[in-house]
Specification:
Blueprint: E1 7-16, H1 28-43, H2 46-52, E2 55-58, H3 62-65, H4 79-87, E3 94-98, H5 104-117, E4 123-131, H6 132-141, E5 156-158, H7 167-171, H8 177-192, H9 196-215, H10 228-232, E6 240-242, E7 245-246, E8 256-265, H11 266-271, E9 281-289, H12 304-317, E10 326-328, H13 334-344, H14 359-362, H15 370-384, E11 389-396, E12 401-408, H16 421-430, E13 442-454, E14 457-467, E15 472-476, H17 481-489, E16 496-502, E17 505-510
Parallel strand pairs: 2-3, 2-4, 3-5, 10-11
Antiparallel strand pairs: 1-8, 4-8, 6-7, 9-12, 11-12, 13-14, 13-16, 14-15, 16-17
Helix pairs in contact: 1-2, 1-4, 8-13, 12-13
Protein name: Acetyl-CoA acetyltransferase
Family: Belongs to the thiolase-like superfamily. Thiolase family.
Keywords: Acyltransferase, Transferase
């Protein structure tokens, strides 16, 4: 094979910052640059590697993509240009800033690998970072920081700009991950036939394994090694965020973490003298999405896209999930892991473990950049055991956008040539969910639900329901504290009632 057309990952770097003084802490951009420098150093030819980069891709920050994490200290107008300048990557002319999505690191690595096979790219870095812990500390202390920078120009944008929830869902206050995933989780509970208490402990046992890995990872934010009981038990320090999720079941976004990965052609790696033991190859990949909005899904406990991406990634690599030595399943919430296990045929108590980092609740959930960490750590794992194999999954929005990659130090035996995702996306799109009633009236029953909490306790409920004619609707319930508390004690899946519409909002009243 032509070595100028064989993609290979050659460097990775990760940084976790624990500086308590926000004045002394690195800014998000400086933190990201630190990871980029570590990745170049890891490749073994730091200055030469940085000068060889023709492409710099930066993962979108949470402050640019989520209303919940808006930064009061300014913004970077051209993040990849600022990053390239800090790194001295003066030859990088393709500067990319992604749109939102936890899938975007793997998606970008797959696309850049294809670009290498076409001779469109020689060497690239993908990096990202968050400093939300410092941002939060500064806000609490009344400290003003200056995180503004305008180096000029506009970056190229990759990904999909469309937000993850519809206007109809927005009217019912389902406008983000902490609102959406609990709805998915209760649907999973209903599908499994578990009681509320049984399912809480099931989630606790699942995430105990993640917490155990984080406890042994010096880069992890939460290294307490939480037990299943600690994770599942509601307490003052571990309250419900969105029922049935306790705080310890949620991705931990308030961290300072950054990561970077460098890839290039084999020919370029040889030219730069990068040692063979640093090389890691992407053998299989796939990308797909489920119906964009939760309202339109076939059901809320499965993911045809995740199943298809797993199959396609393994097909391309010529491997099965059983051949993998290491796994890192995207773990923003238990439901993402449970669905991945179900769709890919992985036991939730698989002895290989389901993470190499500790996962988003315990290692840390640095916005759209977590998978850069998981791929960086997977590189460490397969390098330490030459000839081993690792699977990384990634997930954007609300079990919506799926990407996966299979990695190994083994040299590929065939050219890197993934199938066009459009060929299998069409099959996913063809499977339709029920018709949606935007404004619902009449007898109905609950399909799935959650109760959202604020600092005082239960605040409001969100649910998906079905009318007697089978149409789906989204609704809230009356803001009755007794009802909200009852919905957490007693199983309301399948509960009958009446739904009506007022001012564009559906209100479901249980019978």
């Amino acid at each position: 094979m032509d070595e100028t057309r064989i993609p290979v990952l050659v460097g990775s770097g990760q940084v976790t910052q624990r500086e308590e003084d926000p004045r002394a802490a690195l800014s998000p951009m400086d933190l990201t640059a630190a990871a980029g420098a570590e990745a170049a150093k890891d490749a073994g030819a730091e200055r030469q590697v940085l000068e060889a980069l023709d492409t710099v891709v930066q993962l979108a920050s949470f402050s640019d993509t989520s209303w919940r994490f808006t930064c009061p200290f300014g913004r970077y107008t051209n993040p990849p240009k600022s990053l390239a300048a800090r790194l001295g990557a003066t030859n990088a002319k393709r500067l990319v800033y992604t749109h939102a999505g936890g899938n975007m690191t793997q998606w970008c690595i797959s696309r850049m690998s294809e670009m290498i096979t076409r001779g469109e790219l020689s060497a690239a870095m993908i990096a990202g970072g968050e400093a939300l812990a410092t941002q939060k500390a500064a806000q609490r202390a009344g400290v003003e920081l200056d995180w503004s920078e305008d180096p000029g120009g506009e970056p190229e944008r990759w990904g999909v700009s469309k937000r993850g929830w519809s206007d109809m869902e927005d009217r019912h206050r389902m406008a983000g991950a902490i609102f959406a995933y609990p709805l998915v989780e209760n649907a999973i509970r209903g599908h499994k036939g578990e009681t509320i208490d049984e399912h809480l402990m099931s989630m606790g046992r699942l995430f105990e394994g993640f917490a155990r890995v984080a406890a042994a990872n010096p880069l992890a934010d939460r290294r307490d090694g939480f037990t299943a009981e600690q994770i599942a038990t509601v307490s003052e320090k571990n309250p419900f965020i969105g029922f049935p999720y306790t705080k310890l079941m949620n991705a931990n976004a308030f961290i300072d973490q950054s990561a970077a990965v460098i890839l290039m052609s084999v020919a370029r790696a040889k030219e730069l003298g990068i040692p063979r033991e640093k090389w890691v190859f992407l053998h299989g990949c796939g990308d797909a999405n489920d119906h964009w909005y939760l309202s339109d899904r076939i059901n809320h406990w499965s993911s045809p896209a995740m199943r298809t991406v797993g199959e396609e990634t393994c097909r391309m690599a010529g491997k099965s999930v059983g051949d993998m030595d290491f796994l890192d399943l995207y773990s923003c919430f238990p439901s993402a892991v449970q669905i991945a296990c179900a769709e890919m045929g992985i036991a939730e108590d698989d002895p290989r473990g389901l993470t190499v980092t500790g996962g988003l609740p315990y290692f840390g959930g640095p916005g759209n950049n977590y998978v850069t960490h998981s791929i960086a750590e997977m590189m460490n794992r397969v390098r330490a055991r030459p000839g081993s194999w690792g699977l990384v999954t990634s997930n954007g929005n609300y079990v919506t956008k799926q990407s996966a990659g299979i990695y190994s130090t083994d040299m590929p035996e065939k050219p890197f040539s993934p199938a066009d995702p459009a060929t299998y996306q069409a099959r996913i799109d063809a499977e339709k969910g029920p018709e949606v009633a935007e404004f619902a009236e009449g007898p109905a029953e609950i399909e799935t639900y959650t109760v959202m909490h604020d600092r005082k306790g239960p605040s409001y409920a969100i649910l998906f329901g079905r009318l007697d004619d089978g149409r789906r609707f989204i609704a809230n319930t009356p803001a009755d504290p007794d009802l909200l508390a009852e919905m957490e004690r007693t199983d309301y899946l399948g509960r009958a009632g009446q739904v009506s519409t007022a001012d564009g909002v559906n209100i479901f009243v249980p019978a």
